[in-house]
Amino acid sequence: MSQADFFPSRTISIYMARLFLVRTFAILAGLVLILQTLDLLSESGRILAHPGNGQAEIWHYVSLRTPQIIAQFLPFAALLGTIITLSTLNQNSEIVALKSAGLSAHQVLAPLLIASLGVAAISFTFNQRVVARATATLNQWKDVDYGPLPIDHGNRSNIWVRDGGNLIHVNQIGQVNGQERLAGVTIYERDGGTLRDIVTAPIGQRDGDAWRIENAIRFDVASGEKTKIPAARFGKGITPGQFTLSNVDADGLSFGELRSAITDLKEAGRPTKALEGSLWHKLSEPLSAVLMPLLGAVSAFGIARSGKLFLRAVIGMALGFAYFVADNFAIAMGNLGAYPPFLAAWAPFLLFLLIGEAVLFRTEE
């Protein structure tokens, strides 16, 4: 077997990848079954407390909650699948045979790394297609205490939008005869950050690519004088979507939907740092499955009969748990604004990639 060949033979590669995938998804199935049962025990009382709810609503909750559990614990299942697979191969001296054939540690791990890339792709697709929708529906259902979901007519209240250097506050936006109408409009006109005028109007409505207000009153801050304005246009380029934006739930949106929401929020002059961190995390979280073979590789190398195989497996699990802790900590710090969004999402991944490589080189011999 040549060192120029990065992978072992086709047969060995398929054999190792199959062992990894079977163990990973078997562990995931067991975790989902146990955790869903425990979660249902804590939530079933609240679900059944609403009049009219019964077995159908219980199963509906399970259908919405199970995708969340799968997405959350798939990387952890990949870690345990890696450790069990490599420990078994080491115990049976199969790793020793591969290394005796001249394979390096990275060549031994190559089939698992490729298989984990497939797991990451499945995880990303599943998160975008299933988990995001299930999360959005479940959050709305929880907000009404598991009662009937209200129809969203698009009404929003207490909205702030930036128009260049000016600020616009709207008490409420809704639709009248199919057209957006603003109620309680206040425009804070500023000059270089200094408040110059305050324009108030009871009603505003869409007018071409801008908005139109009537029976408005302009208050001059410098002179204290009030002036009536029969009609005026404002907010050129501001779309109705910028007024209807409410608190964005990053977990309930797919990658594309969240990116669009961030763009709209930026145009509206609202802070988006926490959402940008969540956007990047939608990429780094599925890719964490690729890290698991590297972090769990410590259990593959070393002589099994030395009695340290269990210790090596524990070290692999400790590295995996440390990654999950660091990842959650970085996301929390990003939400608080202490970390830049990109750093909050990718720093733990890159850090443990280097740690995994360092441990692999250190423990290979």
Automatic annotation (TrEMBL):
Signal peptide per UniProt: none
InterPro entries, per the entry: LptG, LptG/LptF_permease
Tree of life domain: Bacteria
Cellular compartments annotated: Cell membrane
Transmembrane segments: 20-38, 69-87, 108-126, 287-304, 309-326, 338-361
GO (cellular component) term, any one: ATP-binding cassette (ABC) transporter complex
First-listed, main subcellular location of the protein, grouped into a coarse class: membrane
Keyword Membrane in annotation: yes
Pfam families, alphabetized: LptF_LptG
Topology in the lipid bilayer: Multi-pass membrane protein
GO biological process: lipopolysaccharide transport; transmembrane transport
Keyword terms of this UniProt record: Cell membrane, Membrane, Transmembrane, Transmembrane helix
Protein name: LPS export ABC transporter permease LptG
